[in-house]
Amino acid sequence: MTLTPSTLADLAQSAALAVGPALLEAFKDPGKIEYKRNFHDPVTIHDRRAEKAIREVIFAGAPNSLILGEEEGKAINARGEQVKPGTDDVVWLVDPIDGTANFTSGLIYWCVSIAATRANEVIAGVIYQPTREVLYRSDDTGAYRNGSPIRVRKEPPQRSLLAAGFPSERLHDQAGAAVGYRKLLEGTKSVRRLGSTALHFAGVAEGTFGGCMGMGTQPWDIGAGIGLVQAAGGIVIGVRDDHSRMTAGAYDCPNYVAAAHPDMAELCLAAIDCVAPQALHTDYLGTQP
User: Fold this and answer.
1) Are residues 184 and 229 in the same domain?
2) Looking at the structure, do residues 171 and 121 belong to the same domain, yes or no?
3) Alpha-carbon distance 136 to 122, whole Å?
4) How many domains does the chain fold into?
5) 237 is in an annotated binding site
6) 140 & 163 share domain
7) What Pfam families does this protein map onto (predicted)?
8) Do the annotations mark residue 95 as ligand-binding?
9) 221 annotated among ligand-binding-site residues
10) Residue 49 CB: number of other CB atoms within 10 A?
11) What count of other Cβ atoms lies within 10 Å of the Cβ of residue 61?
12) Same domain, 15 and 113
């Protein structure tokens, strides 16, 4: 099989759809809830089971690729061995349930997020929201919602909603974050927080939101969303711990901005710059010297 962006998107779509029915059934009664980092970071057996099932589908179709999943927490090959990715490797970023707090609380805003990356770029991805039977997909032909093309809506911040997973309890400089949040409140039509980073990105790609931003995120949170917004004609900027900015490899930055209009991107970057630099990045992909 030739691993073109379209082929990779097909594989991501198959994996996401494969776990949808079981997740919908579990959503009725999630059962026991455990916690990882703290009580802000819940996890269930359904996260782990879904990620395992996604791995099986992906490795069956792309056995030489690597997967970095939220529950595994490291890049692994089909044999389960931890591997440092090479430049030409296809690395999947997998979040089996993006929005687990919502999933365990009866809120419908959670999804499956799967991205394929190569050479520091997201080349294909899928965001699937089983509760609404909505599947977003990106590849080298564009961005789609349930098969129909989507594009960002290029309105200035004053005429746009912003989706923000910000401020975060992970930030040490809460005073600075409050100043940044005020900038967002004053500069946009209004701010929304759905509880799913991937669905924030999807909202930007389809024109519901004029932008989204966050701090203290992980590659699996933002990978598929980055590909979707870029394919829909939007702007994505990654922000490192020292607040330097990058576009290539933005999924490996702990802070991010996605926007339809350049003014929205600048507003979100200004909000991030209000927060004192902090070590938030985890080097899952071996990019640090």
Assistant:
1) yes
2) no
3) 14
4) 2
5) no
6) no
7) Inositol_P
8) yes
9) yes
10) 16
11) 17
12) yes
Helix (H) or strand (E) holding 14: helix 5-28
Q: Which domain holds residue 262?
A: 157-273
Asked whether residue 213 is assigned to any structural domain, the reply reads yes
Instruction: State the first-to-last Cα distance of the chain, in angstroms, to the nearest integer.
Output: 34
Per the annotation, does 140 bind a ligand?
no
Q: Among 149, 166, 188, give the residue marking a domain's end.
A: 149
CA angle at 199 for the pair 49 and 265, rounded to the nearest 5° = 135
Q: Can you tell me the distance from the alpha carbon of 174 to that of 275, in angstroms, rounded to the nearest whole number?
A: 8
The 8-class DSSP code of residue 30 comes to: -
What local confidence, expressed as pLDDT, does residue 44 receive?
Answer: 83
Based on the fold, state whether residues 117 and 175 are members of the same structural domain.
Answer: no
pLDDT of residue 288: 65
Between the CA of residue 91 and those of 45, 162, 204, what are the distances in Å? Answer: 24, 30, 24
Locate 257 and state its tokens.
């901005």
Tell me whether residue 98 is annotated as binding: yes
Domain membership of residue 11 (yes or no) is yes
- If pLDDT is split at 50, 70 and 90, which confidence band does 30 have? confident
pLDDT of 73 > 60? The answer is yes
151, containing H or E segment: none
Question: How many C-beta atoms surround the C-beta of residue 190 within 10 A?
Answer: 9
Tokens representing residue 179 in the block: 């100043």
Residue 38 is predicted with a pLDDT of 67
Q: Which of 38-47, 132-141, 162-171, 207-216 has the lowest mean pLDDT?
A: 38-47
Let me know if residue 281 belongs to a domain: no
On whether residue 109 sits in a domain, the answer given is yes
Contact 257, 266 (CB under 8 A): no
